């Protein structure tokens, strides 16, 4: 199937009907058939294609654009032919293209400024439950806890903790913490905790979720 001629509106309707249950002219991915149809339509209807693509760039702002001053007047083909006989303003296509390009650039600049005015997004954070295992039942757990909480970093906040029995009289420290993902590396944090070789045997991430 090929659609490369759009000399009348009927051919446009045929393509519209053809695409009712399809995303592409042929097959399940974009091919040169799609490119050919796109270029043929754009060649036959350059101003409509330019207008359509331009208005599509405002999709996110459709609910906030100003109301129309009045309903646009639909001009018949006969009236349009009469209008084409007289050029009141002496404008040409190049001037219209330049004006449209300038307007598009202004709109894009306004949109970028609007997004920038909202400020930066909040930092991505994670809440982590960390298991810290002591060497044995004779390990001083209060010293272990103090050494763990003694680690301070920008983007690290320690939370509540508990002691969880693991057998043979040994209890592991289970502690919650909140980290800013871009500032704190869990691997580096675990390595820092495990440097307390007098108290810490190993560490494990028991749970983790994004905030």
Structural summary, described in words:
With 211 residues, the protein is an alpha+beta fold. Among the domains are: 49 residues, no CATH class; 86 residues, Alpha-Beta Plaits (2-Layer Sandwich). Helix content is 40%, strand content 21%. The protein is built from seven helices and four strands. It has a four-stranded antiparallel sheet, with helices on one face. A hairpin with a 2-residue loop joins strand 2 and strand 3. The longest helix has 25 residues. The model has no long low-confidence stretch (mean pLDDT 82).
Sum this structure up briefly.
The protein is of the alpha+beta class and 211 residues long. Helix content is 40%, strand content 21%. The mean pLDDT is 82.
Order of strands in the sheet with the most strands?
A: 2-3-1-4
CATH architecture of the domain at 125-210: 2-Layer Sandwich
In CATH, what is the homologous superfamily of the domain at 125-210?
Ribosomal protein S6/Translation elongation factor EF1B
Radius of gyration equals: 33 Å
Average pLDDT, rounded to a whole number, is 82
Quaternary organisation of the protein chains: single chain
**Largest sheet, described in full?**
4 strands, antiparallel
Q: Tell me the distance between the termini.
A: 51 Å
Question: How many extended strands?
Answer: 4
Percent strand equals 15-25%
Order of helices and strands: HHHHHEHEEHE
Number of DSSP helices?
Answer: 7
Given the helix and strand composition, which structural class is it?
alpha+beta
Helical percent range? 40-55%
Give me the CATH fold name of the domain at 125-210: Alpha-Beta Plaits
General shape: elongated
The CATH class of the domain at 125-210 is: Alpha Beta
Which residues sit in consecutive blocks of at least 5 with pLDDT less than 50? none
GO cellular component, one term: eukaryotic translation elongation factor 1 complex
Protein name: Putative translation elongation factor 1-beta (EF-1-beta)
Keywords: Elongation factor, Protein biosynthesis
GO molecular function: guanyl-nucleotide exchange factor activity; translation elongation factor activity
């Amino acid at each position: 199937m090929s659609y490369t001629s759009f000399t009348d509106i009927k051919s446009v309707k045929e393509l519209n009907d053809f695409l009712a249950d399809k995303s592409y002219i042929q097959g399940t991915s974009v091919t040169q058939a799609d490119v050919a149809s796109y270029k043929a339509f754009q060649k036959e209807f350059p101003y409509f294609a330019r207008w359509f693509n331009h208005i599509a760039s405002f999709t996110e702002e459709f609910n906030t654009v100003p109301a129309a001053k009045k309903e646009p007047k639909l001009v018949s083909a006969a009236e349009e032919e009469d209008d084409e006989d007289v050029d009141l303003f002496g404008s040409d296509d190049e001037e219209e293209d330049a004006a449209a390009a300038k307007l598009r650039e202004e709109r894009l600049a306004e949109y970028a400024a609007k997004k920038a005015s909202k400020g930066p997004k909040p930092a991505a954070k994670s809440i982590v439950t960390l298991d810290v295992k002591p060497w044995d039942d004779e390990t001083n757990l209060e010293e272990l806890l103090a050494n763990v909480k003694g680690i301070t970093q920008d983007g690290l906040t320690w939370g509540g903790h508990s002691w969880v029995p693991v057998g043979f009289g040994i209890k592991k420290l289970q502690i919650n913490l909140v980290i800013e993902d871009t500032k704190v590396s869990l691997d580096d944090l675990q390595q820092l905790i495990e440097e307390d070789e007098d108290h810490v045997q190993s560490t494990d991430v028991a749970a983790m979720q994004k905030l």
